[in-house]
Amino acid sequence: MSAMIDTPVDTPARSNEIVTLQAHILQQQSRYPEASGQFSWILSALAISAKMIASHVRRARLDDVLGTVGNQNVQGEQQQKLDVIANDILLRTLGGREGVAIVASEENEEPVILRTDDSAERKYCVLFDPLDGSSNLDVCGAVGTIFSILRKDRRSPDPQASLLQCGAEQVAAGYVLYGSSTVFVLTIGLGVDMFVLDPAYGAFIRVARGMQIPKTNKCYSVNEGNRLSFPEGYQKYLSWAQERGYSSRYAGAMVADVHRILLQGGVFMYPPTRKAPKGKLRLMYEANPMAMIVEQAGGKALSAPGERILDVRPTDIHQRVPVIIGSSEEVDQVAAHL
Ligand code: AHM
Ligand code: MG
């Protein structure tokens, strides 16, 4: 367990503990004696989904599920076969959890209303991108799942309207990176913790607590092929960074790019382009959860200078937003050029 990063709350005697994601969730739940356990059940559904999707990703070529199914999703993009499989897994695991009222996915035009009864129990909305960066699959590149959890607004008569909350209202957010190992990164608003799937035991093991993004790192992550169609400020920033010897790293999957930045620092951007004047990334299930994780780790996440992603008021569950996210000083540098 030498990779374990401990927060000051761990005594030396406890730092050698082996803690699974399941045990971690129960530990967190025990801090809230009034908790019904519904929220923990939702996290456990996400954990089992992650294991199932990881297994499908590993076998994608063997099972011949690469490529597209010939449909377009609501964004007008080709759905990959594994996009559909991952979406189905999440809908089925979350569907069995009493605490989930509504799920909304990148792959479904309309949110799925699972439960409308307004019992005294608190209910949650779960939003997700089941397989982010899925075009990487055909070349064995990294892909990921991103999720965001909101409280269902009991006062709202329209169940869909209760989804349209600012990212600052999220009660939890996370992502799963299917890379050289399967990594589960989670925040419930008490810092950021990281778990790695041990394939020998089929369990996510906690490897880092209270993660902090380095304040600075001379590295940017952006699709530079679009440079000439970025607003001028972004182009000036790129020239500024290149003059100062910055490195460029771009995986084509936001989960992989943001994960690198969480560990090593730097800035990830998806600016407005001529083709996508509001940027490409989706606010509710890509930008918001990543912004919560990055802020919880001491970084910054902006949609424009002075505009926190987490404060953007949504009007549509599939709306897009420009993204500048990462180390605080690197995000400030981008914003200063805009
Ligand atoms: P997707 O959810 O349809 O896979 O699209 C999102 C992905 C991000 O993961 C990634 O950062 C971006 O699209 C890459 O887009 P581009 O190919 O335009 O650079
Ligand atoms: Mg995506």
Shape: globular
Structural class: alpha+beta
Largest beta-sheet characterization = 8 strands, mixed
User: What is the overall number of helices?
Assistant: 7
Oligomer: single chain
* Mean residue pLDDT: 89
- The largest sheet has its strands arranged as 4-3-5-6-7-8-9-10
User: Roughly what fraction of the amino acids lie in strands?
Assistant: 15-25%
- Residue ranges: pLDDT <50 for 5 or more in a row? 1-13
Helix content: 25-40%
Present as ligands are:
2,5-anhydro-1,6-di-O-phosphono-D-mannitol, magnesium ion
Give the CA-CA distance, first to last residue: 43 Å
Rounded Rg: 19 Å
Order of helices and strands: HHEEHEEEEEEEEEHEHEHEEEH
Secondary structure tally: strands:
16
Describe the structure.
This protein has 338 residues and is α+β, with helices and mostly antiparallel strands. The chain is built from seven helices and 16 strands. It has an eight-stranded mixed beta sheet with strand order 4-3-5-6-7-8-9-10, sandwiched between helices. A hairpin with a 4-residue loop joins strand 8 and strand 9. Helix 1 packs antiparallel against helix 2 and helix 2 runs antiparallel to helix 3. The termini are far apart. 47% of the residues are buried. The chain binds 2,5-anhydro-1,6-di-O-phosphono-D-mannitol (AHM) and magnesium ion. 2,5-anhydro-1,6-di-O-phosphono-D-mannitol binds next to strand 5.
